[in-house]
Amino acid sequence: MNFITKTLQYRNKEAVWQKKYNALAPKEGDEAPDFELFDASGKQRVRLSEFRGQKPVALVFGSFT
Fold first, then answer.
1. CB neighbours (10 Å) of residue 52?
2. What SS3 class is residue 57?
3. Which of 6, 24, 60, 62 has the most neighbouring CB atoms within 10 Å?
4. Are 38 and 44 in contact (CB under 8 A)?
5. Who's near 36: CB < 8 A, 6+ residues apart?
6. Residues sharing a CB contact under 8 Å with residue 64, sequence separation 6 or more, in sequence order
7. Is the pTM of this model over 0.70?
8. What does the pLDDT look like over 5-14, one tens digit per residue?
């Protein structure tokens, strides 16, 4: 099997996966589901619903160290 054939097979397999799981993803304009995380200090829990209708919320994932 050559590189192009393997690449096309992989691409087709991933396209099927993406189609299946994209159907479960929120659509543009959908309300985000509520969730709870710890604040930056790691001491206080914060729920997304506490900010609904008040101000935009941005999530940052990564290391602060």
1. 12
2. coil
3. 6
4. yes
5. 45, 46, 47, 48
6. 40
7. no
8. 899 999 999 9
The dihedrals phi and psi of 46, each to the nearest 5 degrees, come to: -130, 135
Read off the DSSP letter of residue 52. T
Q: How confident is the model at residue 26, as a pLDDT?
A: 81
Which residues in 9-65 belong to E strands, given as ranges? Answer: 36-38, 45-47
* Strand partners for 22: none
CA distances (Å), 10 to each of 3, 5, 19, 30, 58, in order? 11, 9, 14, 31, 34
Torsion sign across C-alpha atoms 56, 61, 62, 64: positive
**60 vs 49: CA distance, rounded Å:** 17
* Both tokens assigned to 34: 């509520």
